[in-house]
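ZP: hey, is the cytidine-5'-monophosphate complex queued? I don't see it on the tracker
AM: it wasn't, my bad. submitting now with these inputs:
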Amino acid sequence: MASLTLLCHGKINWMLRVLGRRNDGYHELETLFQSVSLHDLLTIREASSFSFHCSNPSIPAGNDNLVVRAARAVTDDGTVPPVAIELDKRIPAGGGLGGGSADAALALMGINELLRLGRSRDELEGLALSLGSDVPFFLVGGTAWATGRGEKLVPMESPKTIPLLFVFPEFSIPTNEAFAWLDRTSTDRFEPPMGLQRCRAAVKGGMFSHAEHLINDFEEPVFARHPELGAIKKRLVESGASWSAMTGSGSTMVGAYPDRKRRDRAAASMNELRTASGETIDRARAVPFM
Ligand code: C5P
């Protein structure tokens, strides 16, 4: 029977601004998404009935799992399709790297291809947003400016490959809590947007020329509760990173380096922390179906 093995690449946010609260309970965002080499592996096989297995036993594998929800969403009638799915989790869960969202997006696209369900691009985008605010980005991949909940995407040509160092703290931060912390920080705390033109200029300039504008609004409230993350950011910069930030609502910290040698030296100097080396990737590498 036919099968597909898909790499579900994670993301970082070069910048992330929270622009205000909306009436539907979500926040209006501005962010610049970037696909990265870190990935989970998703294998989808045609089978006589549905099954799902995840390599990480601490991730719930029942109906709440985003991959199971994606599998149900992509069929016409909301039933589970006849596929056996295996998820090899390599991206830390709850770390702001969008691993679960990437898995869901690739499950939508993969099942649609494998079973020839004929879902259009527009339909997949709608289904993706129903699964989570970050999921639509993973249908596009590469580098993309996003507004709204994160689903209004303007894809851009990616900067040339940038070496990255990830630091994974021992704890994760629930996204809804991070938003609540932000809301409580102060009434005038919402930052003005960076804007598409400045983002384009940053990407064209290879990111580092605009490093001071590439900020994440979650850092202030999250670092206030977890000062060790601020200390990791400082260490990444001291180790030669041209840019360093928390990704998404945390807790993963990432440093971007001008070359691999400096990145590798930085990794060696932090060997008591849980780290991984990686790099930015473009759309062609991130997404198997265009
Ligand atoms: O969309 P998703 O399920 O990934 O969002 C998780 C939580 O993050 C939401 O329940 C909401 O509290 C918060 N969120 C938000 N504004 C966004 C995205 C997420 O407030 N644009």
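AM: back. The radius of gyration is 19 Å.
ZP: great, adding it to the tracker
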